[in-house]
Amino acid sequence: MSHPSKLKKPLLYGLIGSVLFGAVLGIFFVLRNTWSWFEVQVVMTTVVIAAASLCGLACDMTRTPHGRNLLPSAGLILTGIAAALLLLGIWTTNDSEIFWKTTTCLSILAVTTVHVCLLSIAKLASRFRWVYFIGSQIIFGYSLLLCCVILGEIDSSAVWRLIAAMSIVVAAISLVIPILHRISKLDRRGTAVLGPIEQRNIASIDEEIERLKNRIAELELLKSSSLPPNPLT
């Protein structure tokens, strides 16, 4: 059965609260016309919280009612760790090179995981599913390449050309999958293709039907126990 996520409401409230709080602070700082490092820290904090909440909601939205949901769970974990490290770096003014390299790489991996999760929402026919599988590998490979360049401080024209070429491929994949989603209304056998959102909705409906069936059975049992015995029997 499908269970509602306990993180959905906190993430939604965090997103709305951080956006509203950031907007109010921005207006206040503009009218005050004084900017110091503290104001910058506060604004950056609201941006990080809003971005992390948005990424968390995106991962939660791609959960399916069945299965382990490893990719959405990994996205939530990476987003939480990256956001915590960013907030730590903002408020402690950490100048450690290793710290910021690690934080940057984790942020890249978190955004990449969220990106792949969002692409998984596309309802692809069976003949197009390989595009998502191969595309997700390319996107993760691209993020790992960026992490290697950051950690190894690689400065090679060949590597930068490879990054540019892969950026074009990643952008093309991100555009092609939604297009294939529009094409894949029905598969070749005429069976409707369901995405994770539709699967979760159907699972919720099935769960509610099962609950009502159990309730009806309980009421029927209560009714039969409340009836007086038949004198003819």
Keywords:
233 residues, mainly alpha, 7 helices, 76% helix
Total number of helical segments?
7
SS content category: mainly alpha
The residue-averaged pLDDT reads 81
- Our Rg estimate from Cα atoms comes to 25 Å
Shape: extended
Beta-strand percent range? under 5%
> Main sheet?
none
Number of strands: 0
Give, in order, the helices and strands. HHHHHHH
Classify the helix fraction into a percent range: over 70%
Q: Kindly report how far apart the N and C termini lie.
A: 43 Å
Uncertain spans: none
What layout of secondary structure does this protein have?
Blueprint lengths: L7 H25 L4 H25 L8 H23 L4 H23 L9 H24 L4 H27 L12 H31 L7
Structural overview:
By secondary structure, the protein is an all-alpha fold. It is 76% helix and 0% strand. It has helices at residues 8-32, 37-61, 70-92, 97-119, 129-152, 157-183, 196-226. The radius of gyration is 25 Å and the shape is extended. The protein starts with 7 loop residues before the first helix and ends in a 7-residue tail after the last helix. The model has no long low-confidence stretch (mean pLDDT 81).
Short recap of the structure:
Helix content is 76%, strand content 0%.
